[in-house]
Amino acid sequence: MKFYKKTSYAEDFRLFRDGAAAFWYALLGAALLAAPFVLPTYYLSQLVLIGIYVVAGSGLMLLSGYCGQISLGHSAFYAVGAFTVAVLEKHGIPFPLAFLAAGILAGAVGLVVGLPALRLSGMYLAIATLAAAFIVNEIIVRWESVTNGASGLNLGKISIAGVVADSEAKFYAIVLAVALAAMLAVRNIVRAPLGLAMMAIRDSETAAQSMGVPLMRVKLTAFAMSALLTGFAGALYAHKIQYIDPDQFTILVSIEFLVVIFIGGIGSMHGIVFGAVFIIALPQLVSVAKDLLPPVIAQQSGLQAAVYAVVLLAFILAEPTGLYGIWRKVKHYGAMFPFYRKGSLRRAKSFAKSETW
Amino acid sequence: MDPLIVFLQAVVSGVSIGCIYALVALGFVLIYKATEVVNFAQGELMMVGAFFAYTLVDLGGVPFIPGVLLALAATAAFGALLNHLLLRPLIGSPAFTIVLATVAVSTLLRALAAMVPGWGVETHRMSNPVAGQTVPIGKLVVSAEHLMVMAVTALLVTILYLFFSRARIGIALQATAQNQLAAGYAGINVRRMFGLIWGISAAVAALAGVLLAPAAFVHVNMGYIGLKAFPAAVLGGFGSLPGAVVGGLIIGVIEELAGLYLPEGFKNVAAYMVLLAVLMVRPQGLFGISKRLRV
Amino acid sequence: MALLEVGDLGIGFGGLRAVDGVSFAVEAREVFAIIGPNGAGKTTLFNLISRIYEPDSGRIVFDGRDVTRIPPHDVVRAGIARTFQNINLFDNATVLDNLMLGRYRRGRGNLVQQTLFTPFVRREKFADRRKVEEVIDFLELGKYRDVLVDGLPYGVRKIVELGRALAAEPRLLLLDEPSSGLNVEETRDMVFWIQDLRDDLDMTIVMIEHDMSLVSAVSDRVLAMSSGRVLALGAPAEVQRDPNVAAAYLGTA
After folding, report:
1. Looking at the predicted structure, is the pLDDT value of residue A297 above 80?
2. By Cβ atoms counted within 10 A, which residue in A195, A218, C40, C148 is the most buried?
3. Under 8 Å CB-to-CB from B204, ≥6 apart: which residues?
4. For residue C129, which residues of chain A lie inside 8 Å, CB to CB?
């Protein structure tokens, strides 16, 4: 059995809980750095996709997981990021600037959407963000002079200060760096007073306000930050796919992001990575399973979407704490062995009627 | 053509599609009032209902009206089953989880519908007793389909109104909607009420699907039209049944007029722009009451 | 000059005057109790002072400053902290985190500093933590420090809420039924805490209470309310003897 005894206040908010945890993360870090030299290109490109979803997921985790504001419209910020970088590079702006602009513009759109939307909560907020996403999508389609409308835009490879990222390995390095930075940024906010304020808003706006938290300001900050990060993710995505059109940024993308943070584990940093891995790994598993299933089911084009939905529902019903929740239970089992008691990590369900929605 | 006529034609089309939105929004609000769940899969229930009707009437050869009624019943049962399997276990869960659950259900229904033999991903034409006919009213030429939609909607709304205000079960449903705990203590079987509400809501959605089929055809992505019901429900005031109907009609008309007078693209997002405007200016909608925070 | 002055405060909800022309003044370092039957408007009064509700009429002056219309999140910054009748804690957080949020009004670091978690932000966190530990010691919450508030017994949660308000270092503490749900021992502790807060920490306390023994033991003055209006104001013994007060509670014979 393992006990954690803390001996200094700093241990409450250190990045890594103790030396052992830091060791394992260092090992993981080394593996990630070694990947381009060891893995075949296909797997490397999957890691790239995971990295992109980590960036987007970290944004949404901050807003929905930590601050408790539901957004069904993050595809809009993804799209803004992607199109910004495509349009700017078409006009000769170098990638580093275009990339920054993508995030900043997405963040700005986030502010514009957030200002009216965040005055609402729960269901109304979800619907408002959904509406905003539709509107942004339509704007992209109609603003043909800039975005080329429904025909879409092509992108070249990333080029930073003359060095072209012409191999998957180089692209991977960029995505890895951005993903780590995104996670670090979110982790820092969460352990800073702002993060505490966000979690307070999630749990009780009235109490948070009575303790001096300016609700609108904090929610807007979370919203803009999450839009910014999702914009960065969109910019990277655009370079991965190298061709973007408005049809790629539908509500389904917003739902994918929500799946990432929910199945990963709401309100946890690990959840971001677990969720991103899940969302990239699942289609692979489905493809493999297709060979095992009778053809009448396997041939269906809707199979992947159906599997997504079933898995999501399974998690919602059986394990709402997500993959991270399962991970914690497994670790707890191991740590407590053989004294593990079922339900030791279960939380009491509350039946309080929701506040005004 | 006389611009006034053009305007009025658009209004008539708007009212017609507005009736569809009103029906879907009605289903929404019914479920929300009773269970505090916002059913993002309402559009897909509409789609399922339309497919049931199509299967019975066109594939199965059942005469139109009995076929439609059977489809309504089947969809109602389907809705109740959905509630029993998925929503009941989630009572007490945070809002986020329930939103995600209904979103997952909508995705699942779309995917499963595509897998059913005979349904698939193609669009289907459903037979329609009043197809193609038109009725001249003054200088207007109104399609019989539009009139059927409006008539059926008006009939349904009347039936629902009578049901909720006069029938015992209807009143019990209202009680459940207002205070589940108190309703339970008064002897109302709250769980059964939930099933009933989902059943009614699903049947209303199915009817909307049947009415929509002539204009939009039957296909698995029909449910997206149901997303327009959100603005309708919000405009009407989320807890208000008459509001849902009025909201739907207004949204329908605004959409048609936007398509007529505004540049391309506005028609697609008109509903959502109205939604955002309402949320900014008067979040409780036309008929909703703004609730006071109780601390 | 009084620390808190409420002048002719009023609010109505749909025709019902929940608070009607209420005026009183609370002196610094005073323990001021508000009593009255249910529905008297006591919690509504608190909600007006902490700016959850918007008054129809009247003024609230705190420490010489008109705070009748300040934004709700500025209330604690002005120096007023409160607890809630039905406990409003952050259920998904530990006791420590709940108390740490009480320090939020101190304000530190802008967005960039916090995103980078600069040494300044670190130092401020340490300072907050030290202050919160003082509160934990004072209320003897040590063994609950890292426990999720969700699973704690009701009495402990009430104390945590008090702790959170104390962590904000207020000058005026609004306690809404601090002893409800507490057993005899815990209520006695509450008496000592309230006295310590007033005597050692120079705090002013306004509390809504139903427990008359607590009121008599610790209050300097009592305000009795009924149907939104003031019935009586004075020393505990006086007010309890007042015939109007008895009538409001028990009904006239």
Report:
1. no
2. C40
3. B23, B24, B26, B27, B30, B156, B160
4. 9, 12
